[in-house]
Specification:
GO molecular function: ATP binding
Helix content: 25-40%
Order of helices and strands: EEEHEEHEHHHHHEHEHEEH
Strand order of the largest sheet: 6-7-8-3-9-10
Largest sheet: 6 strands, mixed
Bound molecules: adenosine-5'-triphosphate
CATH superfamily of the domain at 9-89 and 161-238: P-loop containing nucleotide triphosphate hydrolases
Protein name: Urea ABC transporter ATP-binding subunit UrtE
InterPro entries: AAA+_ATPase, ABC_transporter-like_ATP-bd, ABC_transptr_urea_ATP-bd_UrtE, BCAA_Transport_ATP-bd_LivF, P-loop_NTPase
Distance between the termini: 34 Å
CATH topology of the domain at 9-89 and 161-238: Rossmann fold
Shape: globular
CATH architecture of the domain at 9-89 and 161-238: 3-Layer(aba) Sandwich
Domain ABC transporter: 9-240
Number of strands: 10
Keywords: Amino-acid transport, ATP-binding, Nucleotide-binding, Transport
């Protein structure tokens, strides 16, 4: 197996699954610093399972996960978060009984003491003004789109070097989709945080991604610069 001591996230020949069923099969990806990489593929091909394995929520059967040269394959999810990887899972996993403010403060847990001492940065409210308006409301009272903004805000608050987003636009009303797209665009423009994005919209993936991978039956079947994401590839790998 190759040794990648280079920067960014390297996923090498990763295999994982549930019980007897293998879902991710020898998948390899690289997310270089400052770049946006889209992971695409039909429903059920293993995108979420791959991300959950990268985050340490599912143990890999084999393969390696390296981040900035450090082997994270067997480390706990909290170690990955403290290494600078922020994660927004599918289905906006916020705490409904806690206020928006308390949810945001939880995001600071993964931050360095330097960042933590400043509390919630104003930039979060510039990116998501609705979170300031709803600061003392319970997370569960927010609409689905607002909860998604809260989940992304909570991940960004620790200033991750890598942000992992699992279908952030899924089931969100169009006006808020645009807000979320703008935030991902601003993260990209700053070039200090790389993004691994699972995304179904070809239009947005093409516009935002520096690079893409297509997964089918748990294996990477196509990859390239976003300019090479075209209709033929769509029909072959992504059409239902
Ligand atoms: N907790 C689980 N236990 C057993 N099988 C699971 C579990 N979660 C997912 N699977 C199965 O693993 C396969 C891959 O699912 P996964 O959610 O990773 O795919 P996906 O590409 O993210 O799909 P989607 O776009 O629908 O979220 C599917 O066959 C799914 O039924």
């Amino acid at each position: 197996m190759t040794t990648n001591s280079g920067t960014g996230l390297w996923v090498e020949a990763l295999e994982s699954g549930y019980g007897e069923s293998m879902v991710v099969r020898r998948a390899s990806l690289h997310i270089p610093p400052g770049q946006v990489v889209c992971l695409m593929g039909r429903n059920g091909v293993g995108k979420t399972t791959l991300l959950r394995t990268v985050m340490g929520l599912i143990k890999p059967r084999s393969g390696r996960i390296l981040y900035n040269g450090r082997d994270l394959t067997r480390s706990a999810p909290a170690v990955r978060a403290k290494s600078g990887i922020g994660y927004v899972p599918q289905g906006r996993d916020i705490f409904p009984q806690l206020t928006v403010e308390a949810n945001l403060l939880l995001g600071l847990e993964a931050a360095s003491p330097d960042i933590r001492k400043d509390g919630i940065p104003a930039s979060i409210f510039e990116q998501f003004p609705v979170l300031r308006d709803m600061l003392h409301r319970k997370g569960g009272e927010l609409s689905g789109g607002q909860q998604q903004q809260l989940a992304i805000g909570r991940a960004l608050i620790s200033r991750p070097q890598l942000l992992v987003l699992d279908e952030p636009m899924e089931g969100i009303q169009p006006s808020i989709v645009m807000d979320i797209e703008r935030v991902i665009e601003s993260v990209k423009a700053a070039r200090t945080t790389s993004v691994l994005l699972v995304e179904q919209s070809l239009a947005f993936a093409t516009s935002i991604a520096d690079y893409f991978y297509v997964l089918d039956k748990g294996t990477v079947v196509a990859e390239g610069n976003s300019g090479t994401l075209n209709g033929d590839m769509m029909r072959k790998h992504l059409a239902v």
